[in-house]
Amino acid sequence: DLGAMIQGGMGIAAGGNINPKGVSMFEPIGGSAPKYTGMNVINPMASILAGQMMLDHLGETEAALAVEKGVVDLLTSGKLKGLSAADIKASGLSTTKIGDIIAENVAKG
Fold first, then answer.
1. Structural domain span for residue 30
2. What 8-state DSSP symbol labels residue 28?
3. How far apart are CA 56 and CA 26, in angstroms?
4. What Cα–Cα distance (Å) separates residue 65 from each residue in 34, 50, 105?
5. Which residues pair with 17 in a beta bridge?
6. C-alpha 106: how far from its chain's center?
7. How many distinct structural domains can be found in the chain?
8. Cβ(15)–Cβ(40) under 8 Å?
9. How far lies 66's CA from each of 1, 48, 78, in Å?
């Protein structure tokens, strides 16, 4: 959790449980945050970056780089005031909108 806070918060930190001889798992390190289900207020970047890590682990390097670039493009766009739920709300963005922006960035390349 300390490492997550250093890199920007729980909303952006992804983790992988790597099994070199079997199935590996990837997830946002903050967990699924079920108390926020349906509220559209959580930073989805950790989940998106967990998917990016999975793609990289599976050898889908080009796709992984595209997702990473999509996230970086949003982070450097100035659209976010920060990475916490409060910052996202203050930015006028929602979970869905952030996901849409990242998906658009990935599609643009």
1. 2-108
2. E
3. 11
4. 29, 13, 12
5. 25
6. 13
7. 1
8. no
9. 26, 12, 20
